[in-house]
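User: Can you help me understand a structure? I only have the sequence.
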Amino acid sequence: MASNALSSFIKHIPDRPYCTDDLGSGLQIRPKATALQRVYLQPNGPGMVWAMVYDVDRHVVDPERLAPVWEDARLPEPNFATINRANGRGHLVYMLDAGVCKTSAARLKPLRYAAAVQNAMCTALGADPGYAGLVTKNPTHDRWQTWEIHGQGFTLGELAEYLDLNAANAKAYRVTDGEAHGLGRNWGSTPEPAEFLDGIIISLLLSDCVGMDYVYIELWSTNFPYFDRFTENLSHDAEQLLGRKTHKSGYTKHRRPESPNFL
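Assistant: Let's start by predicting it. Here is the structure, written out as tokens:
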């Protein structure tokens, strides 16, 4: 039987999440029941964050000391970890008792607080700061070793108790308005649109299964600060990829969604 936290994770998966059995083959949109049979799936919808996921690119448990990474970081135990059986790396998942709204209608102060907590935890864990959080290892799939640790969700305040977010460290964890709306995406450190496109958008568009509409929705709903010029100064590869996709979707370069109806 799934723990309370794992049940909450499953409950808050979008009704039609992105999922795949092979990241190299691209993502597909499928009903939740189908997605739960895939190796990777989307944990959060575009407007709410219930699962805070951290990508640990080293052993989740040190093989010599048998100490998990959160103990070294002096952080609370995650609700569960999905671990690669081959190399011991994995995703750590902290479930929130109350989801964080990250649409343009959300209040900025709670968003900034949530983004600061997430960034600070990522730093403390030594997790991959480039992990966008679009899909995670499916904890119900046999490919992964799922370590269910406890079932109690967290409040942001409870997580913040383990972090130093006072004025002395404000600079280290300060987030921009755009980064706050883009909880889980480090907009604040994105220097140029081309770098962002090459690193994130291209990875989404490599498969015909992922359309440009998703990219526009994600950038618009998270207040991506370069939206009005994100098709300018692209690399040759990005320009070609964008051209192929926009030809299919009828998108006109530089068009911006005009209202939330686009979502």
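Now, to help you interpret it: Residues 160 and 259 are 35 Å apart (CA to CA). The first strand starts at residue 18 and ends at 20. Let me know which part you'd like to focus on.
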